[in-house]
Design a protein that fits this description.
Layout: E1 7-8, H1 16-23, H2 25-30, E2 53-64, E3 71-76, E4 81-88, E5 90-95, E6 98-103, E7 107-110, E8 116-120, E9 127-137, H3 140-147, E10 152-153, H4 158-174, H5 179-198, H6 208-220, H7 228-235, H8 239-250, H9 254-271, H10 277-283, H11 289-300, H12 304-308
Helix pairs in contact: 4-5, 7-8, 9-10
Amino acid sequence: MPFTQPVLTPVSPASPLAVYAETGYQKCMAEPPQEPSHLNLASPLGTPARFDAVVGEIGFVRRRASSPDWQIRDLVNRRYSIIALAVSGRARYECGGEPFVVQKGHMLLFPKGMRHSARSDPGSPWSFFSAGFQLIPADEAAADAFDRLPNWTVPKNFVRALELFEELDRLWSAQEAGYLLASRSRLLDLLHVVVQGAVNVSRSIPHSRRLEAVVQQLQEQPARNYRVEDLAEQAGLSPSRFRVLFKALTGHSIVRYQNWLRVNKAKDLLLSGEYSVAEAAAEVGFDDTYYFSRLFKKMTGFAPSHYRNL
């Protein structure tokens, strides 16, 4: 697979990065590393955040050892998106005018064409894996979802991310039969790790584990009617407190979240071709087919019959 050199744009000595390197770099490295802001992208409601894509051409896979002299200035790769994992040490990045510090366990994702600059911390130079590839979203909704991802995240499972990159590096180096298939699979898995890290909004929410157990129960039994009081008791919270925290976790009220689960399940039943609209409505807990149809159209933009006839 031919390697395409990233497009580098020269930087003048007065560029923001050059000026920062002289005046603010050591201060940035001396400050405690900040945590990335986690976005509420997990919610399936409103404008759907659909993370669906395929990996096209793979341009490069690299394992770079630590070096105190490593730096890039205004790097713009116009062909590939770039994903990376910090294995050790620290580096200071600037992207879109926003500086941030990357350290062991952090992951980076830059869409193609995004300008970014970076420099190793001389006192603790970072080592990292990186890969360049063509990310092809499934549709406009998926493209919007990927566009909303932050450029850096903290994965839930650093060990898993490291294993995936090590496997990808071995596959790319050996280039045995089927290595492109396997390499694309590892890249998709790494993208999933990034997405999970970005949408992990529960870290700062009190009682998140109990709330997540309730959410899982709702997902597993969408047709069942739950009273808010019963769910709150299950989570060990008052109904008012439960409502507030549930919305903080999911981005939506309990009723709206349940309705989405039901509508989504009904859509799958209709697409199977084995259920009529009335049967699908009853299967997910709606006795009134007319109300179900109105709610379905409101939440999906289409009448249930649209999916029944596909």
